[in-house]
Amino acid sequence: MLSKTRAAWRTPGLALLLLWSNSLFALDVNIAPDTPYVETAHEGKPFRIQRIQDQNHVLTGGFTKTSRKCPPFCIQPLHVAPGVITVGELEFLDFIEKKLNTGQGVVIDARTPSWHEKGTIPGSINIPFTSFDKETNEAVKAVALGKLGVIKKTGTSMITSLWESALKLVGSKTAGSPWDFTNAKEILLWCNGMWCGQSPRAIHNLLALGYPAEKIYYYRGGMQSWQILGLSVVVPNKQ
Amino acid sequence: MHDGVKKPYGRHVLIYTPISKASKRILYAVPILAITLWVLFTGLPAIAADDDYLKALESEADDTGSLNTKPTNNPTPAKSGGVKNNDKENFEKLLEFELPSTYKFYTKLNAENQAKVIKRYNREKKMSAASKMIFDLYFQHNK
What we know:
- The structure holds two protein chains of two kinds.
- By secondary structure, chain A is an alpha/beta fold.
- Chain A contains seven helices and nine strands; from the N terminus they run H-E-E-E-H-E-H-E-H-E-H-E-E-H-E-H.
- Chain A has helices spanning 2-24, 89-100, 113-116, 138-146, 158-170, 198-209, 222-228; strands at residues 38-42, 45-49, 85-87, 105-109, 124-126, 151-152, 179-180, 186-190, 216-219.
- In chain A, the strands form three sheets. In chain A, strands 3-9-8-4-5 form a five-stranded parallel beta sheet, sandwiched between helices. In chain A, strands 1-2 form a two-stranded antiparallel ribbon. Chain A has a two-stranded antiparallel sheet with strand order 6-7.
- In chain A, 30% of the residues are buried.
- Chain B has two domains: 19-62; 85-141.
- Helices cover 67% and strands 0% of the residues of chain B.
- Chain B contains five helices and no strands.
């Protein structure tokens, strides 16, 4: 009899305990009023993006630096290219939830590996900006573009050549490109911040290859803004 | 009247003159040299600029040092207590992801009790069992 009463108490008791613990451990430093954190996966493991909770925390190290030689480290424009959307942190996190977590999008850390190894934004994959350069080996380009859902066009029949010519006449940018962008994913590129030219260069080269501008997003704030807001970073596993 | 200027006269006749081997070499060398110079003056500065940019990037990466990787969600690092580090890390990530509130209680446990939880999870592969054990252990020590 006594054990039955105990069992009856246990379930609502546990629920109340969880409610209490949730309010007890609610975050003080949220991302937005109703968003304490955003969940994603990094290198196949679940990862929660949230802000540093220590309200006395200040930045130290390289991202506190104000001045670097320009060129090459010049201030980047807000709009990197026509049709490409520049985003801030909330739009970036929205992209993670709606595009990256559903497999429709890719977040690209466009920096060279030496930067990426020091720490990256969770969910990002490293595709250095040089991968899309004109001079880059076609095989390297194919691997990089393959990660974005872009494949090399195979065999050109007469009909496809005619179609390509017609598209060229209409002014289509992808016509004549050796790459097939039909299944190209939505991509969000970032680098070190407003003084960094690595992701803008990747974007310009992707556009030159024929990547649809409306599928490209640019996070201009980059690692600098991410760090200033105390958002989570992850140090990639060295393989 | 003779104006002092020699005027060509007669029909044009092609006269084949033997060209020496040296002249032939020069004839071939001139366009090759021109192309080489063109490549040098147009292509190389771009490549050199790229090299400079990459060098500057690498140097800046060295200067920047490490990132601010202060943990955003403060799990207290605990000693392994006979559990493989990898198991511990994986379990903690999974627990934090699936049951964030329970995870907070888990972080309050001492290393020995944390290891017990992980061992039980590894044995039963049930998060519910691990969760129950976390609460039991927590309240045993915090009555």
